[in-house]
Every structure is written in C-alpha cells, then in structure tokens.
Sequence to fold (555 residues):
Amino acid sequence: MPKKQTKTQARQSKLSLPKGVALLHNPMLNKGTAFTEKERDGLGLRGLLPPHVHTQKEQMQRVMNTFAKKPNDLERYVQLISLQDRNETLFYRVIMDHIETMMPIIYTPTVGKACQEYGHLFRRPRGIYISAKDKGKVAKVLKNWAYKDIRVIVVTDGERILGLGDLGTFGMGIPVGKLSLYTACAGIHPSWCLPITLDVGTENETLLKDPLYTGLRQKRLRGAPFDALVDEFITATQKLFPKALVQFEDFANINAFRLLHKYEKKVCCFNDDIQGTAAVILAGVYSALRITQGSLKNQIILFQGAGEAGIGIGDLIVSAMQAEGVPADEARQHCWFVDSKGLVVKSRKDLAEHKLPYAHDHASCPDLQRAIDSLKPTVLIGVSGMPKAFTQPIVESMSKLNQRPVIFALSNPTSKAECSAEEAYTWSQGRAVFASGSPFNPVTYHGKTFVPGQGNNAYIFPGVGLGVIACEAKHVTAPMFFTAAKTLANHVLESDLAQGRIFPALTRIQEVSAVIAAAVAEVAYEEKLARKKRPKDLLAFIKSLMFVPHYTSYV
Fold:
C-alpha cells in the first residue's frame, strides 16, 4: 500500500470505512482524539471521544510522558503494544521518531522477557496461530486474517526463542516484534505484514504446567507430522499470498537448516537467524577491518557456538572471501568453531551435518581458551547463548595476539551476552573493536568514550524485505545478503568508526534500509528473479512505497 493513493482509491476507502465504535476499535484506521470535528460528525464519533481535538504531536507527547513514568522496560513494552492495538499510525510515529529509545523495548532485549511472560501479559491476539490440530485446514485458518494483500510473513514454531530456548506459543512476540521493525525501519506498510506461530507443542515442562500457557498442552511434533504441517503451511501461503516473502524465525537447529534448504529454491523465503545475522555480522567485520587496517582474506575467525547464527555467518564470510579470489576450501580454513564439546575438528565423531564443512584437520581443543592459544584468531565471535563465555583471560588473550582485537558478543538477550561492552573495553585496555547483539550504553575508559556497535539484524532484514517486495522477487539468494552486507558497511561513517561504532546510528535506519533495498532489488534483476518491471529510478520507486505514519483525512 503506497503512501499515495489515487482519488478513486481514496474515495473507495472512505466508502468502506467502519463508523462509530467499530472505527475506534480498528487500530489501522483509528486516530483517537485526533479525529477532526468534521470527521466526528460524518463518522458517528460525536460523544464517543472527549471534545478536544488533539494533534498527532500532542498525542505523542502524552505517550512519551506515560512512557517515562513506567517503572521498568517490561511495563514500557506493554504500554507500546497496547498502543499498537489501539492506534497503529501513532504507534509507528512514536517508534520512528524515537527509534534509539524504542527499539530495545519492542525488540531485543525486552522482547525476550516479554516472550517469557507472553501468556501472562496477554491482552489482545495479534497474528495467526496455526496449531497441530489444524492439519488439513491451514488455508482455511489463514483466510481468517483480515488483510489479503500480504507481502511479508514472519513465522516461528517457538522452539529457540533468542537465547531463551523453547517458549512455544509465547514466542509469538518475536514475529510481532520483527514485523514492527519491518515497518519502523523500512517503511513496509503494517497491513502487508502477517505474524504467524506454528503451535506444534512444547518441551518446556514449566509452560505445560502453567494454567496461563496459551498453546497446546503436548510434546512437540517431530519428523513426518511436523514436516507435513510446515509443507501445508507453505503451500497455503503460496496460494493465498503469492507475493509474500516468508521469513523463518527462531526454529531450532534440527529444523532451521533443513527447512531453509528445502524451500529456498521453491518459494520466496529466508531464515533470518542464519542469513540475516550473517549479513549484519559480515558488515560489522568489514567495518572493523577499516579500524584494524586488515583485509578479510587474512583474518582467522573463531566462533564460540556452532548453531544457526555461527554457521550462517561462516558461510557468508566464505562467500565474501571467494569474491576476493580465495577458493572456497581455503576460505573455510579461515573459520573455526567451538561448540559445547570443544573445537570442531575432523577427528570428532559427534558432529551434526551443518558443522562438517568446518571440521578441519587439527588437534582437538577442549575449550575456547585453548582454541585461542592454538589458532591465534584475529576475530572472536560469540553466538553460543552462553553468558560470560568471554572471560577476562579470554579477552586478555585476544588483546595479546592483536593490537585491535575484534570481539563480537552477539547472544541475545543481554543476560546471554558473552561479555559486556564495559568488560571488553576494560579488559582490552580500550583496544577492542566491540559489537553486541543487545544494546549496551557508551563506555568511558581512561577519558575516551566508546559507543559499542549493536549487531542488530534490523539493519539487514527490513531492507532486504523491502527490496524483495519492490521487485517481487521469486527467491531470496545468498548474493542478496552479501550485497546487503557490503551496502550496510559502506554506510558506516568515519565519525562512527572514530567512536568505535561499526554500524550506522539507528537514527539513519530508514535511509540505510532504502539503499539496501535498492541494492537487493538490483541483484534480483541481474539474476532474472524479479517479477516486476524495473522502474527507471529504482531508489525513488522504493522510497515511494515506504509507509509514512501521518493521519489520513477521512471526510
């Protein structure tokens, strides 16, 4: 839904408007106390609202005043979600105008706590729940959604929510939050967005015993029954929403890689934990190398954690090295992984299939410290979900090996981070190039203030999604993520790097997302995957699609 309407579209929209209480209860149309005198008379609102007509700016002031009085971030999350349920236009105006303040509330780290409490905070359902009981009826369930022109679907089965594990249907907070970022960061119209949770049960005994748990009280579907439900879901989305991009989110390792490989060449889809994370971290590495004055092909990169995020990052780094002329086998030799049983090496017989390409011929190392001593890495990336895995000796070892050690503590939420920004800067004597998954405040060390970079996927997936939507791409490909990473890195300013920040300021996120979208769409046109004719000015066309949260006049 472009921000500009034709006169015919506007007239038809007005004719189909609900009136009175029904209009006030429609969050996509409701303006609250901002309805004008003429609108109140023409739409049956007289008496249903207080007499004074407020501007959107005045409404925002009320929201921010209340926000400041809330005792904690979880209460702020509840306030914002409640606002989204009442007035989406005002919600997005607040988010976009205060993005640095609001992103940690509507997404990581606060969304993790919100998901843990989701059933206890439950007020009004958002999105579609497809349960194991809906087998054979998935298309019918999806038809219950009010909006038919869906362009982005974020779907989870709730098994691996952030670093918190199996939260079942409480994981719905993740698709809802991700889609809020699609709109806030890339201007994708909220009516184009559909959050979905596949409720296939849970292994979380605490949830199964919780009387307020919102999902099926059963163990998870596995094997053929699980695959059949997912396949029915994918088939139904292709029939009902043929222009939709499907984003897989927070599936466990046992399913994430498998589902991506099964569907990536059949439908327009990607896995954000594997591919989105990879792109934002590759961008971070590129930016870090501008500080260290190194080249990618000379780096030794050690990962703590060998799951979706780690392997996804490794794969994209290998692709980036190949683009610099390094053969794939040699490039993989630059990426090493430590999992719960030590260094991933060829002699181990317990390796999952997705780890095998990175099982190198090397002596075993039982832990991270000994892996660092042996491999002498230049870059250390934490994607393990193991809090405090980067201890003082670990950071000090990296600092002895490197004048500017690159240390990324990416696990979410904050409680799962491998180390804090303050620890990284202090233990490295202010020499670390640091990034994290959840935000940390600036750190002053010996009189110098460092602004830690946040490797937030919101720098990548909204722009990728917007680019895919703009050209109506048939598939999402690895070159699109590689291009998105390079584009993001190119938009980090020298002034950012001077502060130690390796990603752009969040205040520039829409600008950056639009440029990423144009770059992604160009790849789609080059790969002949675009279904829409290329406009003369691709970037201008993309910007014309971006939702601007201003109120529309209804009468």
Summary: The first helix runs from residue 7 to 15. The longest strand covers residues 193-199.
